[in-house]
Amino acid sequence: MTRSIRTPIPIAAALALTLGACAETAEQAPGMDDATSEVADGVFWFNAGTHNAFFVDTDDGVVAFDPISNDAAAGLAASIQGAVPDKPLAAIVYSHSDADHATGAPVLQEAFGGGVPIIAQENALPIILERGDPDLPPPDLTFSDEMTLRFGGRAIELHYLGPSHTDNLLVAFLPEERVAFAVDFVSNDRVGYQSLPGWHFDDFYVALDRLMEIPFETMVFGHGDVGDRGTIERQLAYYADLRDAVQAALDEGLSEEEAMAQVRLDDYAHWGQYEAWFPMNVGAIYRWLAES
Ligand SMILES: [Zn+2]
């Protein structure tokens, strides 16, 4: 296990911000809105249109994943305050650096009085600094491979599985509840996004296998409905079948355009975005295989 700490807030100090001596039992309040679901005791999924956030209640505050956007972050703050009233926000975690998931942290911080540390995988830091977007501030804390957050006796593991979709995507895992949160590199019975932008294919297939090594039973996604291990097994099968089908097209001498027009995977034809995005998935895999 390795970790790195970026100033100005060392991790021990940041965690100490929210660590209290008193361990109260969290009560389930009736204030949850329609966009919020509780997937395990004190573990919540928040939907904002096409995107989802994730938050975990602990006796020492709430850990929130992905503010998504300024508008969604306002909704997420209300969702947290409705589901677990009067709790402070302990930390914000970015699943990865992409703006459509990581924007809006200042709105969330403001809603909880500020001073909330942001955590991300270390490769996200230079990308976010370079972008210089005030609505997407850089992380205060980063880690390289794995880090475990402990708040109120609750463990939240952050796993970096290597490059997959971007070079800084993390997977959150709650070992007690066996709930995980994964964004963009896997989804629920849906093909990959368009031309798989930001995908590192050599490492992506390794990351899929490493994901299955995490003993989750429930999977919350950055897009789409909650799934389980079977959902991820189907994703592995899809990407393996996609690679094999495109390799067969290459072996037959098809051009990229011909492959995009002709390759079909009927087993997945009922999946979300198959008609719109599957040919684009084929093109992306074709270019990767043709170059490797
Ligand atoms: Zn992304």
Q: What does this protein look like?
A:
By secondary structure, this protein is of the alpha/beta class. The protein folds into two domains: 1-21 and 31-176, Ribonuclease Z/Hydroxyacylglutathione hydrolase-like (Metallo-beta-lactamase, Chain A); 185-214 and 228-292, no CATH class. The protein contains nine helices and 13 strands. Strands 1-2-3-4-5-6-7 form a seven-stranded mixed beta sheet, with helices on one face. It has a six-stranded mixed beta sheet with strand order 8-9-10-11-12-13. The longest helix is centred in the C-terminal third of the chain and has 23 residues, at 229-251. Mean pLDDT is 91; it is low at 1-29.
Which value, in Å, is the CA radius of gyration? 20 Å
> Which ligands accompany this protein?
zinc ion
Domain count, please report it: 2
What is the mean predicted local confidence, pLDDT? 91
* End-to-end separation: 31 Å
Give the ordered list of helices and strands. HEEEEHEHHEHEEEEEHEEHHH
Q: Which segments are poorly predicted (pLDDT under 50) over 5 or more consecutive residues?
A: 1-29
Please render the helix and strand layout as text.
Elements: H1 11-16, E1 36-40, E2 43-48, E3 51-58, E4 61-65, H2 70-83, E5 89-93, H3 99-102, H4 105-111, E6 118-121, H5 124-131, E7 141-143, E8 146-151, E9 154-160, E10 170-174, E11 179-182, H6 201-213, E12 218-221, E13 227-228, H7 229-251, H8 256-262, H9 274-291
Parallel strand pairs: 4-5, 5-6, 6-7, 11-12
Antiparallel strand pairs: 1-2, 2-3, 3-4, 8-9, 9-10, 10-11, 12-13
Zinc ion binds next to loops.
